[in-house]
Records
---
Amino acid sequence: MFEKRELVQRLRADHAQPEGEGGDFGMHVIPRMIRNSPVHAHHFRGLPGDLQPYWRDVGTIEAYFDAQMDLCNVAPQLNLYRRDWPTYTLWHNDPPAKIVFEEEQGRRSEVHDSLLCPGVVVSGGKARRSILSNLVYVDEHSSLEECIVLRGASIGKRCRLRRAIVDKWNRVPDGTVIGHDPEHDRQRFHVSPTGIVVVPRGYDWPVG
């Protein structure tokens, strides 16, 4: 996290460096800042007993996706639930997450190995190894598998999403299928080399 003025100044100074002496935050920008600016570090410790602190480079879609999916593991590399060393994030004043419907025949919610943020509603849908950001809504008979759904997005009825990143405030229409047909996905969205589908914010969903 940088103050804007400081970041702009540092990037311009880094750009003026000779080839090979600039272009990387960890190797060039931050070390130069430490010499003459107030720099503070948070110790992202791993599991108890780990000697190596937590560090992930999320410069690619794959790296970002893997870092998020790791949080769904029983013992993630970064444990967000440690009370002796809490990691505080931005707080949204939203209601608690809510999972509704348990009908034997019909609507039945199931959530496994997933993170649900405040304001999430899973209404008769299913989520496995997924991260649902605050105010996300999953409608009935829809299934999410290894998905990252960002703030305020809603998933319609009878949708099937797998290995997808859905950006903020999207309204995914009923019956949408993503992550099951690579060729069809490439016609509509950006698909990473390993098949992760990225649905951008403001995507113009076709009617019907």
---
Amino acid sequence: MKIKSKGQKLDFTATAANVVSRAIGENLFDGSPITADTPESDAVVRGRQGGLKGGKARAKSLSHTRRKQIAKKAAKSRWKKV
């Protein structure tokens, strides 16, 4: 399968095959796994690192009363009748 390079367009069939290959995680034509060595995977790793420390850092920066307000609002919405 041709890889799309800048300026070139793929036909509908090749685009569909590419989407399916990425969804199942392996190349449709030879069964080889698709590696995650893409720029998108680097961004995912960096985002996850920030996300893991984000909540703790935010909680540390909030005052006790503000954390209490947020918790009350969350509890109220959680127990809200539908």
